[in-house]
Design goal:
The chain has helices spanning 38-42, 47-50, 87-97, 104-109, 169-175, 180-194, 251-254, 273-283, 288-298, 507-539; strands at 2-5, 8-11, 16-22, 55-56, 59-60, 155-162, 167-168, 198-199, 203-212, 215-225, 228-235, 241-243, 313-319, 333-340, 343-351, 357-360, 380-383, 386-389, 396-399, 402-405, 411-413, 418-425, 431-436, 441-448, 450-451, 460-461, 466-469, 480-487, 490-492. The protein is globular. It has ten helices and 29 strands. By secondary structure, it is α+β, with helices and mostly antiparallel strands. The protein folds into three domains: 10-36 and 272-368 and 507-539, Nuclear Transport Factor 2, Chain: A (Roll); 55-61 and 107-136 and 372-501, Glucose Permease (Domain IIA), CATH 2.70.70; 155-257, Nuclear Transport Factor 2, Chain: A.
């Protein structure tokens, strides 16, 4: 592995461990791990701690304060008990809230799609909330739904099916969730090429499935026998089944006959993605710091509060294990490959010329987002970008940002690295902070109850740093953050605009990264070949 020491690149030979974790396999751990906290996931280290000091119910407190809790004096308290509201009170409520109600199907249909559960639990959210509830029978493969924004691009996934007894090929498909309509043609093609209608005990069926929308297609199937490739059939452009070359070698084929396969579980019994990651990582000997790094790497693309799918898995590669193949204090997470909902992301650790360490995808793009779409990780999405009736002024006007509601005093974090342009009072916006980012991007944070210490014009801020606290200053009916994004001076929808990625390697750094990536890939390929040889020798 390559590391930077001064002005030199030093190549060292290191022991390593490669782990492949199926998150639905029912991993358990006796080690404690932190409860899910969106602020801690998205904020920089230490930001969540500083956010809880010096602020009580929106008031800055310089001295120490203590609290005491006593029972409410039910017997001596005097209050008026009513069973309902009077007609005058009902009229007052309707007049106060009527201005913010949507008028007709046009406004409802114009709502921009956003998943409010992405950053936290939002029961009773807006009309377009997605609760992610799905009931499926046990042992049934689940195809990932495509996004609701019109993107119908195809996703590709693989399924490894071990043959533990002589069975007809079509029966093997059916027992693993592939019906006659989906697998009948491929089963017949395999039987024709093998000249037998059954798969022998010890065979492995490797199936490649394309998912587009709600439609699945088997595009490729390979048959292995005792670790050796027998045949591969693929679907060509004319929808014909034709012989094909063996796909890139996969160590999953060698692991197909593991004597301790994961027990199939009903999806309702599966843990959340967050819990599944920690339990699996700890059961495989990964350290707390390494697992936290893994969670931050996946935060931009994964809904941690949803339940894991049977196909969700993570592959990790780390150095310097101890005698039990667990991570030691000197271990480094070198490679991560994650698959969630049929989408696969791969990241490589790389030390840059300035000594900083980050993770990049195969093309040298940083795993970090350029800007976060929600500066209040604990907040609930309340109002989108576009024309609406102003809740105070009472007439239709353009809503030039998005609103995230949260209790008064909830920390607000910077969406990205940048420089503070303004920080102070700004009319109807109340307490406002504007941050200038690279390439003409600016973000605006409004109606704050207070601005964090050190957030003054000219100050440099980093992504995830606490810059202020939710409030209702200015023209606001309740505690929330009004968040705006400007691109070259034009206000755009923060939830829909296509944001650039973070840092992109170029020049000599990109060349060095590609060499490091190739070294890691070579090690992984050699490990896969060795695993197949071991499996073949064991089968013999």
């Amino acid at each position: 592995m390559v590391s930077r020491v001064g002005d030199r690149d030093v190549v060292r030979t290191q022991p390593f461990v490669q782990v492949k974790m199926a998150l639905a396999a029912g991993h358990t751990t006796g080690r404690d791990y932190p409860a899910f906290d969106p602020l801690d996931v998205f904020a920089e280290d230490g930001a969540a701690v500083t956010a809880t000091t010096g602020l009580i119910y929106g008031a800055k407190v310089e001295s120490e304060v203590s609290f005491r809790t006593v029972d409410f004096p039910m017997e001596t308290a005097s209050f008026e008990e009513r069973s309902g509201l009077s007609a005058d009170e009902v009229e007052s409520v309707v007049r106060a809230t009527g201005a913010v109600l949507s008028e007709g199907a046009v406004q409802v249909a114009a709502l921009h799609y956003v998943d409010p559960e992405r950053f936290g639990q939002t029961l009773g959210g807006p009309i377009n909330a997605s609760f992610g509830v799905r009931i499926v029978p046990e042992n049934v493969s689940v195809a990932a739904r495509m996004p609701l924004d019109g993107d119908m691009s195809a996703a590709f996934s693989e399924d490894i099916i071990p043959g533990r007894a002589d069975k007809p090929i079509i029966v093997v498909f059916k027992e693993n969730g592939y019906g006659e309509a989906l697998a009948g043609g491929m089963a017949a093609a395999i039987a024709t090429l093998l000249e037998v209608p059954t798969l022998k005990e010890g065979s492995v069926l490797r199936v490649g499935v394309e998912t587009k929308g709600d439609v699945n297609r088997i595009l490729r199937a390979s048959v292995y026998l005792r670790g050796s490739h027998i045949m591969t059939i693929a679907v060509d452009d004319r929808e014909q089944y034709v012989p094909a070359t063996e796909p890139e070698i996969s160590s999953d084929v060698a692991a197909a006959f593991d004597d301790t396969p994961p027990v199939a579980r009903v999806r309702g019994d599966l843990p959340s993605v967050y819990d599944g990651i920690y339990r699996a990582a700890y059961s495989y000997g990964m350290s707390a710091a390494m697992t936290k790094t893994l969670v931050k790497l996946l935060a931009a693309d994964v809904d941690f509060q949803s339940r894991v799918n049977p196909a969700d898995r993570i592959e990790c590669f780390f150095s310097q294990p101890d005698d039990q193949d667990s991570a030691s204090e000197d271990s480094e997470l070198l490679y991560v490959k994650s698959t969630f909902g049929g989408n696969t992301r791969t990241f490589y650790r790389f030390q840059m010329a300035d000594g900083a360490v980050d993770y990049f995808d195969e093309d040298g793009r940083s795993a970090k987002q350029f800007l976060l779409r929600n500066p209040v990780p604990n907040g609930k999405f309340r109002s989108g970008f576009g024309a609406r009736r102003h809740p105070i002024l009472g007439y239709i006007r353009m809503h030039t940002g998005v609103d995230w509601s949260a209790p008064r005093g909830t920390p607000i974090i910077a969406s990205g690295n940048g420089t503070v342009e303004t920080a102070g009072w700004s009319g109807g916006y109340g307490r406002q902070t504007i941050i200038r980012h690279a390439n003409g991007y600016e973000t605006s944070y409004n109606h704050q109850s207070g601005i964090a210490r050190g957030i003054v014009p000219g100050a440099r801020v980093r992504q995830g740093q606490v810059i202020g606290y939710v409030g209702s200053t200015g023209l606001a009916t309740g505690d929330h953050l009004h968040y705006e994004l400007m691109v070259n001076g034009v206000k755009v929808d923060p939830m829909r605009v296509r944001l650039p990625v973070g840092r992109v390697l170029k020049g000599e750094e990109l060349v060095a990264f590609m060499k490091e990536r190739e070294r890691v890939d070579t090690l992984l390929r050699e490990e896969a070949v060795d695993s197949l040889k071991v499996a073949e020798a064991s089968a013999r």
